[in-house]
């Protein structure tokens, strides 16, 4: 488990390695392969090894926007959805029995938020519920709480059209979107859950500043001839104040667990800490680790054994929300995953 303060230091230390193209540690360093995908084959498609083959797994849209092929909305497999719903229901129930509440942060796909710039082949037919809506229904139906970030982002596009929610040439959301998602999640937590009062220090954010963003993780996945035309991008972010909220793992009673969307450059966990006015710790991993891998490793890790949180915020992404623990870096059958959860909670 890595605290926000440690994540910030590691991000600063690892940025040079990431830009140099080295194979970074998938837990702690700034990532090159940050896309979150929807099928087992797409997990392979996002890897650096796949990118080096020259096979394009990203497509150019309109006005300089680039999308991963995994953004394509495909029909949801009912059997897989039911299996994932059950393992999530059982996991949330086990956590609740251990005195731990669960909130989900379901990040919409880039093409869900910006369909107007997406290539036609990625767009879903306009019939029936969207994949995001189905995923949100699954998460809300398994005993946790989850904010509708697709609706939030649609509103933000109307209210602040000049401020991007996702990067044009990267798979991730911007800090503007992540901070808004954190505020919406905190609002739902305050409405639906009763957490014990916290007197511990929390992260405070400064004034919003505009910072350059140079990762462009989708560019290496384009056809070689299209990789040179990349425009500079920036993002608005409220940097955590130095010395005003450096959180140690043993002081945090809220844990954020998830994907590279939770990485410190996007500011979700610090913004959540400020919105909740309580300390928040953070553990995230990149593909091919799944969010089930991250949850299992967190529950079995020393930070959890030392300090159990009152709330876990579990991050999923629309494109992988229906993938269970059997589609992971360490694939486990649902019963095997649940056995590991039970064992960790009983330790």
From TrEMBL:
The chain positions of domain AlgX/AlgJ SGNH hydrolase-like read 60-317
- Keyword Transferase attached: yes
Q: Which GO terms describe its molecular function?
A: transferase activity
Q: Which GO terms describe its cellular component?
A: periplasmic space
- UniProt entry keywords in alphabetical sequence: Alginate biosynthesis, Periplasm, Signal, Transferase
Q: Which InterPro entries match?
A: ALGX/ALGJ_SGNH-like
Disordered: where is this region?
1-24
Any one of the GO BP annotations: alginic acid biosynthetic process
Q: Where is the composition biased (Low complexity)?
A: 11-22
Q: In which pathway does it act?
A: Glycan biosynthesis; alginate biosynthesis
Q: Does the keyword Signal apply?
A: yes
Give a Pfam family name. ALGX
* Compartment(s) of residence: Periplasm
Name this protein carries in UniProt: AlgX/AlgJ SGNH hydrolase-like domain-containing protein
